[in-house]
Amino acid sequence: MIAAQLVPTPVGPLALLSREGTLVAAGFTAEPKEMFVRLTPALQAEGLEVADGLGSAMEAVRAYLDGDLDALDAIPVSQPGTPTRKRLHAALREVKAGTTVSYGELAVRAGLPKTAARAAGSACAQNLIAPFVPCHRVLPSSGGYGGYYYGVPVKEWLLAHESGGIANPR
Fold this sequence. Notes:
The chain is of the alpha/beta class.
């Protein structure tokens, strides 16, 4: 069974979906089913159940919002993908809070220097576990914020929070 929980954040609810203590999806939505339908058919076959507490993931989000910007790093995650996508997602988890990289730099960090920035962009677009796999920390080399699955205002807030520009109003 996939367990789901909503955690309030200053930019809206964060849906957490977990299977046996490992996050399989997370995203800024009030409806966990929006994340559930993005899972593999095998995971969807397990069903979805709203839970009261997902323990460490929920506590990590609260700690992150309270200023422990590394709190999300300790939570185990699992998402499908090709070996290239998995390397890019692993490299994303190594990008420290308060810093950003370009899509091309992400490919280099993943040990894929010949991979086009487009592959890094695709890995970010297909990321199912935001902000634990912090695709919000990737910016286009041409400037600006680029896109973000949950909207540029959420990306801007996350980056400002991580750079110390926002105090959590909780």
